[in-house]
Amino acid sequence: MTQFTCFIVLLSVLSCMAFKEKVSRKCMQDTKKFIEDLNEDIPREYAALMYDAFGKMGSDFVGGNMNRPGSFSECILANAGDFSGQYCQVMLIQEQTGYLVGLCVPDSCDEAEIEILVANDVFKYKDTSLVPPIPSVLLHNSTQQIPVSTTKCLKKNGTPDASAIVCLFVCSFIVALPLGGTIYVALIKWKKQKLNLSTAGSNFKSDPNLYGTFLQHDVHQKHANNFSADVESPTEHKSGRDVEENNKNHNAKRWKDSVENNPVYIVALSGPSYLAVDTFLLIGGLLSVKSLFSLIHRADDKMTIQLVGTFLLNRLKRIQPLHIFMVCLSIGLLSVVPKGSFWSFAEMQIDICKKYWWTNMLLINNLFFYPNSCIPWSWYLAIDVQFYFTTPLLVFLLRRNTYTLIAVATIFLLIPCFISALLTAYFQLPLYLPNEWIHKAYFEYYYNKPYSRYGPYLIGILLGMFMNAKKERLLKKQWQAAVGWISSLTSMALLVALAYVLHEVPNCPSAPHAIYQGLHRTLWAVAVAWIIFACDEGFGGYINTFLSLNVWIPFSSISFACFMIHPLLIIIFNGIQETLFHYTDINFFYLYMGHLVLTVALGYVLTVLVEKPYLFLKRHMK
To answer: What pairing do the DSSP bridges indicate for beta strands 124-125 and 128-129?
Structure first.
């Protein structure tokens, strides 16, 4: 028995020596001082602040209140003289249950050292751990595990670095340039008015390309199309990894159960919300080919290299000014906004944008791993432009030889189907947008890649070619339209239902999952293409009336800016929170309406100050 005791003591000594070798002397000294000052009869003020900033377990663990965020703002107030408080979050796993715990530790310790200190249960008050396991009444096994390199420490609010200052300057310049032009034009107008040049006033009132005005289109349905084509669904973003609302809820399990038990959940899981991107890609392909046909028509039916260059350059000028502005705004604004306990995602975005900003400039950010993408929701812009470059090729083939076009289009249509099916079988991919990183391959190889998304865009191009070529209405009888509508709506319903049936992710290659993944996006696009065609043929009914409402006109003008700004607003809102958000239907509805109103307001401002001026500049330069 004595030999066994000596052996245990020897192991403890060796473990302690190894533990100290991995933690710096300064970190150990400051941590020891913090623990000693905390455990005095009357703890020192800084130690009490650091203790209070530690995350504490709350009630309703069963409902999903697992995370213990603590307080970032309180932690950074602690100052011991030799060191200050540093807010960190450590990921702990207990019986397959993962949860975050906020810590307030000396700023002399780095993230790896903090993991060692937590693993050795160094942080204690009166022999009670400051990072206790979940009680055995809730989880029987009290053993805590720390995944390697998952601890994240937040920097204090400080002055922005050089890159943030440069980005803020670029944003200011992008806004100042059209403002300066507006002031210059206003001065010229004022001088002409003083000289009684009556023509000046009428010119300024009638010119639709003036800064700050919106163009009026002849076909109202185009506004609904623009509203859809310029924007990727906010619902899909909110269900993705870039905006993790469920991790900010202290009753996340109840939120998840409520959502999954709601009948509307099937729409978000695999229906119009999930497939919204494919709908927009279809419309994008349709509008791209119509735009190219319009340029060719104005060039006396000649398709030259210069015309194709103008076509492609117009697209870049349409997208890139606001895109570049948002990249710079993400770096600059997130660098100066006061932080909260959930700022780690925003800080990660800053670091990623500083490293990978050039991929956004080249519009290839979708070719990189999804988490390493600056403003990750902008992958849609990259893939849209990449597909846009294929439109001239297909139109050229159409003008040369229709059979060649059919052969090439067939190959282009089959490639994404086969690749998507093979990827699904090999990686066992889910048929919906997952929230868990256990399906990392879904984002790395499939979700935002051109080889898996081209089908709907190509359907849009072919639809545009067909509608441009037809000389008269093809639907002569109502029964023809009825058959088309029944087939389209039935196909949509089956696609939604099958995804719900195949919801479970298989543990081995599954033929039904692979076939569905390979075909569903293209088939959905074909079904939506029928709706567009039926509306064009005069058999759209109430749907055509709805899409032709004047209400879409202002929204179509600001939709691109709304798409670009709304995820940044959500990231900032989540990041500055100090406490977890409580889920109720009314709370989330109120939160949604706040995001919506603020998004529309800022979308209008960005449209007027950034997007429209450079769009009009493009037109004046023609």
So the answer is: antiparallel
Alpha-carbon span 378 to 370, nearest angstrom: 11
> Is 422 exposed, middle or buried, given 0-12, 13-18 or 19+ CB atoms closer than 10 A?
middle
Using alpha carbons, select from 161, 169, 171 the residue that is nearest to residue 323: 171
Q: Which two tokens stand for residue 398?
A: 């159409």
Decide if 444 contacts 426 (C-beta within 8 A). no
| 333-353 pLDDT tens trace | 999 998 888 898 898 899 999
pLDDT confidence of residue 60: 84
**CA atoms in the 13 A half-sphere facing the CB of 349:** 28
What pTM value is reported for the model? Answer: 0.83
pLDDT digits (tens, 9 = 90+) for 493-552: 999 888 888 888 888 889 999 999 999 999 999 999 999 999 999 998 888 999 889 998
The phi, psi pair for 298, rounded to 5°, reads: -70, -20
Q: What is the pLDDT of residue 433?
A: 78
**Identity (one letter) of the amino acid at 287?**
L
3-state percent breakdown (helix, strand, coil) of the chain, nearest 5: 65, 5, 30
CA distance 2 to 17: 23
Is residue 460 within 8 A of residue 525, CB to CB? The reply is yes
Strand pairing of 97-106 and 85-94? Answer: antiparallel
Neighbours of 542 (CB within 10 A): 7
Q: Which of 535, 557, 559 is nearest to 547 (CA)?
A: 535
Structure-token pair, residue 147 = 């995944």
Q: Which pair of tokens denotes residue 483? A: 């058959």
Amino acid type, 374: C
- DSSP secondary-structure letter at 154? P
- Give yes or no for a contact between 88 and 154, defined as CB atoms under 8 angstroms apart: yes
CA distances in angstroms from 366 to 353, 375, 459, listed in the order given: 14, 11, 21
Closest-CA residue to 390 (of 459, 319, 448, 461) = 461
Listed in sequence order, the residues at least 6 apart from 375 whose beta carbon sits closer than 8 Å to its beta carbon are 326, 327, 330, 349, 353, 360, 564, 567, 568
Q: In the prediction, which pLDDT does 271 show?
A: 62
Note the helical H segments in 23-158: 25-38, 45-53, 72-75, 111-119
